[in-house]
Amino acid sequence: MKNIKEEFYKTLLNREDFYMKQYYSNYHKEDVYIAIKELREGIYCVLITDEANENIDSLEAFEYIKTLDKPFSLNVMILSSEGYIYTEHVHPINKLIINKDRGNVIACDESCLPLKQIWENAIQKNFSTNRKLGKSYFENKLLTSGLIVINIAIFLITAFLSGSLFDIDTKVLLDYGAKYNALIDKGQVWRLLTCAFLHSGLIHIACNMYSLYIIGPQIEQIYGTLKYLIIYIVSSITASALSYFMSPDSISVGASGAIFGLMGALLAFAFIERNKIQKKYMSSLMQVIIINLFIGLSISNIDNFAHIGGLVGGVLTGYISYKIFNNNMGKL
Q1: Which domains does the chain have, with CATH numbers?
Q2: From 58, 80, 243, 256, the catalytic residue
Q3: Digit-coded pLDDT (tens) for 84-134
Q4: Is 128 in the active site?
Q5: Percentage of residues in the chain having pLDDT higher than 70
Q6: Which of 73, 235, 243, 307 is catalytic?
Q7: Which residue in 3, 86, 92 sits closest to 48, CA to CA?
Q8: Residue 33 is inside which H or E element, if any?
Q9: Which residues are in the Peptidase S54 rhomboid domain (predicted)?
Q10: How far apart are CA 189 and CA 180, in angstroms?
């Protein structure tokens, strides 16, 4: 996204009589720039961000502009995907939504019409999907894609050995590392992790991989690739550990414990940054977690203790990763 921001800001500076102001972002831990144009009735401010950082970036910009002691209009250009869902903010901002892959305008508030015209005249004509106006499709999806490939590859091997896609043979699962207390007690502790990469059937893996595809990129964007991997592994182990103690007779497989851990890490992030993000984010996340736990309790043969163990592991690991080991935690 860096190149498209620079290009459009340069257009505003060189052709539209804007000037730049900068302020320190407590979230990004670096200086952030905003374009400003003096008008008779106040200042017209332009911020460029993406849909992942929309709430936090607009809030920080809004709070900074208030310190300038001038009437203002905050206009946020959001680089997004085609499926952007328009939501209202708790503070007054105007939005111009741009498809970051194609360059077309998805939505535009009335105050952003001048920006829309500038975009279409100066930028969109030269927009090409081959230009590096944003990061690739795999931005914040690299580890998620890798985990999905690994899970699918292992599933296909077990399906081949079982002779079925829909009902993987229990013996095959045990041979490949399912959580089974009797074998763990004999020293095969690695089963506490390997079971998270096994699935009992096509529907099982499809549901888990879809959830991972949705949640994973958010974790990678917030925590980074390494911490994401740590959260995933730790949550897998804590999920299996609680299942070991609370469901000693079960044979357990599946990535759902790790996925609950990722949801727990999102919950930890939302709690730490509760003063910077909308309350709806926290409440919506809590609703998703509760609903998924309830679904698990309503269906037989679901290892709910693994879900709870993964959730707890994700909350703790996410909190430690984001808060305590943050180099600038004093500025949070």
Answers
A1: 2-126 (no CATH), 142-331 (1.20.1540.10)
A2: 256
A3: 666 666 678 899 998 887 788 888 888 899 999 888 887 655 554 444 434
A4: no
A5: 86
A6: 307
A7: 3
A8: strand 30-39
A9: 186-322
A10: 10
